[in-house]
Amino acid sequence: MAEVQRIRTGRHCVFAMHVHLVFVTKLRHNVFTDRHLTRMETIMRDVCADFEAELVEFNGENNHVHLLVNFPPKMAVARLVNSLKGVSSRRLRQEFPDLLRHYYRANKLWSGSYFAGSVGGAPLNAIKQYIEQQNPPG
Fold first, then answer.
1. Is residue 47 within 8 Å of residue 87, measured between CB atoms?
2. Cα dist. 63→82, 92, 125 in Å?
3. Left, alpha or beta for 114 (phi > 0: left; psi -120 to 50: alpha)?
4. Which ranges carry the Transposase IS200-like domain (predicted)?
5. What is the pLDDT of residues 63-97, one digit of tens each?
């Protein structure tokens, strides 16, 4: 849990922003085995790194995956989601021919929708202390 609360710094900001993402397969079909999920975690970790985000936690079952991502404020969650779904679909299709039968119309592995929920955050007293420290009495 300590890793989730890690505060990161950018050029002009200090932040701790996390999003819980859930992607489901097209038509909720059972698609993934452990080997697919293991490879998918690596792919999604790499995509997050390209966005200067961090995949904190990953888990999945045969028809959906959960991700906990620590992301910078300059990043649009929708852009990250599109890249995560697009890159993972393309790479899994290339690396696992056995998955091709699960790609529906227009070669889609994932449902067009997704869940994104904000997670965590600093306790109010930590925010208050940070604000107070910005303008010391003088």
1. yes
2. 18, 14, 40
3. beta
4. 14-134
5. 999 999 999 999 999 999 999 999 999 999 999 98
Residues 101, 31: Cα–Cα separation, whole Å: 9
**CATH code at position 67:** 3.30.70.1290
Residue 3 lies in a domain: no
What is the domain range of residue 92?
Answer: 8-134
Average pLDDT, the chain: 85
Calculate what percentage of the chain has a pLDDT beyond 90: 57
In this model, does residue 29 exceed pLDDT 80? yes
Angle among Cα 40, 106, 76 to the nearest 5 degrees reads: 55
Number of domains in the chain: 1
